[in-house]
Amino acid sequence: MIRLVRAEVLKVRTTRLWVGLLIGAVALDAVGVIATLAIAGTTEGNRANIRPISTVEDLQMLVWGGAVLWLFVAVLAATMSTGEYRYGTAAGTYLATPSRVRVLTSKLVAALPIGFVAGLIGGALPVVIAAVWFAVKGDTLPFGSPVVVAVLEVGLMCTYAAAVSVCVGAAIRSQVVAILALLGFGLVAEPLATTLLPSIKKWAPFSGAMNAFAAPDPDLFGHWAAFGLMLAYVATAWYLALWLEARRDV
Amino acid sequence: MNAEAPAIEARDLTKRYGAVNAVDDLSFGVPRGSVTGFLGPNGAGKTTTMRLLLGLAAPTSGSAVVLGGPYARLDAPLRRVGAALEITGFHPGRTARDHLRIACVAGGLDVARADAVLAMTGMDSYRGTKVKTFSFGMRQRLALAAALLGEPTVLILDEPANGLDPAGVAWLRGFLRRFADGGGAVLMSSHILSEVAEVADRVVVIDRGRLVTQGSVAELTAAAGERVFVRSPSAGELRSALIREGADVAEEPDGSLAVRNLPPERVGEIAAAGSIVLHELRRETSTLEDAFLRLTTPGTDPAPAAPAQPSSLPVPPSRPDAETGP
Fold first, then answer.
1. How far is B242 from chain A (nearest CA, A)?
2. How far apart are CA B201 and CA A201, in angstroms?
3. Most exposed among A74, A127, A143, A209, judged by the fewest C-beta atoms under 10 Å?
4. Nearest beta carbon to residue B72 from set A16, A87, A98
């Protein structure tokens, strides 16, 4: 299994897709952080309810904003599965490892560190930008261990997004459809549904289970329950993907 | 595992897509130490059969056996079987070497094999080049390189000569011959029948998913028979005389007569007996292409009356829908 996971990581490393996606995602994250820092404490910032970064909790909020990298992670993880069919490499993959269980499991396992590292980047970047911003202004950054925990939480959120997305990609196979389905669900369908039916929000895969590790929200589950829900979603997605893949011809 | 057993065996293999039987009750074997050509018209089911053999598609019924069992149950399959299928693709943004390194890691092979097979297939100068810049022939070489990674004893190759330049075709021919002579088994589909005739020991011919015939190339071409071509200014008179003697005579586009069932000596004697002038009289032995076309083209006689079909060669199945065309 270890060699299969290594092969999956090598597949990601040997194309440039991840570089482009990471640059785009980091740029998106950075723009959001800089905009927040720039307007926090101003009249426009107060009007938009953006508080100045004066406490550790304020910095935590900035860090959780780095979870926007889940979008990058979702696309990359989905392509780990869909790319096999888009480029016809699935035949070679299954010739080397005929077991579909092992191939899909190795993709899932390989996606976890990729998602975690991306999440750490997404979580750490706001701290780095804020540190530079405060240093330039001659202020002291309100840093503390809760900030480190928040960075790890962003890592966990992105790990979860990677795990779900690699399975969704394997289940759907079409790259465009899988990416549109993930982003459409996470950015449009789920927020709309949870706005219309707030009682289901805590059960929602992204705005419920995943966001339980972001800014405190009394409508969501606690960390352990949310973590259990994440595991349930990943297990369900993995099983569904496997069930479909086992019935497909390559 | 029985050393005498075929390295590859299809047993009553059937693959149905909806109402279409892509592969229909197909049985054949590929012995060790041989190159077996896998022939059939477009859409005959060759690639589907190969996918079934390699576990990439599940049969509707029957079984596909490679080295004693289903491909999926092989331990370290890349070390046992090398395959290059038309459906095998490459990520365009990956280099040739990276593509092979990934296969090595996934297959538990030494990554140094990537460079070795690139050198073997004449691709060593392109190891760092991205696949998107490759011509069709270079992709074909890369697919062959991937098939050879694990130094397998069985090769399953789908149209391996397609797109190769003459030097590549010559290399492939020599390689496959040496591979089989070393005890390996090769199943190779191809549309280049002259290539198959040069390298293959045996052929399996299928059409519309069904076995048409299998046997040695020599048996197949002998079964297709030979023809005598005769050209005469009195072609009509000669034709009548030959038919009276029991010949099967067909008129060729250039006006000459193609005669079956009579040797050239007898054709000459008949012409002499009727004082018919001949401008040309020659024997033409059937090629693999003649045999293939005769077996797979609707409306042609799949089993000529003479010479007699060797007993080891199965009689082609009746094709009641032959007139509808492929």
1. 56
2. 68
3. A143
4. A98
B89 has a chain A CB within 8 A of its CB: yes
User: How many domains are contained in chain A?
Assistant: 1
Asked if B145 contacts B117 with a C-beta cutoff of 8 angstroms, the reply is yes
- Domain chopping of chain B, boundaries: 8-215, 226-285
Beta-bridged to residue B39, according to DSSP, are B205
Its domain, for residue A164, covers: 2-246
In the sheet that holds B280-285, the strands lie side by side as: B248-251, B257-260, B226-231, B280-285
Q: What is the pTM of this model?
A: 0.80
- Chain A residues with CB under 8 Å of B98 CB are 10, 14
CATH fold, domain B8-215, is: Rossmann fold (3.40.50)
Q: B106, A98: Cβ pair inside 8 Å?
A: no
User: What CATH code would you report for B226-285?
Assistant: 3.30.70.980
A235 phi and psi angles, rounded to 5 deg: -65, -40
How far is residue B249's CA from residue B227's CA, in Å, rounded to a whole number? 10
ipTM above 0.85, yes or no: no
Per-residue pLDDT of chain A (250 residues; tens, 9 = 90+): 889 999 999 999 998 888 888 899 899 889 988 988 888 878 877 777 778 888 888 888 889 988 888 999 999 999 999 999 999 899 999 999 999 999 999 999 999 999 999 999 999 999 999 999 888 888 888 888 899 999 999 999 999 999 999 999 999 999 999 999 999 999 999 999 988 998 898 899 988 888 888 888 888 888 899 999 999 999 999 999 999 998 888 8
